[in-house]
Amino acid sequence: MSPLFRRSGGAAKKATGGEGVRPAAGDRLVTLVGKPGCHLCDDARAVIEKVCGETGAAWEERDITRDEALHRAYWEQIPVVLVDGEQHTFWRVDEARLRRELQG
Prior knowledge:
Layout: H1 10-16, E1 29-34, H2 39-55, E2 58-63, H3 68-74, E3 80-83, E4 86-90, H4 95-103
Parallel strand pairs: 1-2
Antiparallel strand pairs: 1-3, 3-4
Helix pairs in contact: 2-4
């Protein structure tokens, strides 16, 4: 599979202690990886702010232009959304899908 479409469940399983067990939405962390001046990043931020505000999940934003590792991993995909460190989506954020992920 192309690294452009990679997803891994390993870290999420380790963080939750096993298969099929997810932490409560308030214990989740959503990370928006983007860059200044990116209109798709602005759109993603609006969806993330809304969904995290409704679910109680924490969120943060990381600037790909200030982090070489993020730049190498995600440059062609921004904006990228990570949930608990695992890639959830890129380019466009589906509000309903993100909400389902956070609510488990």
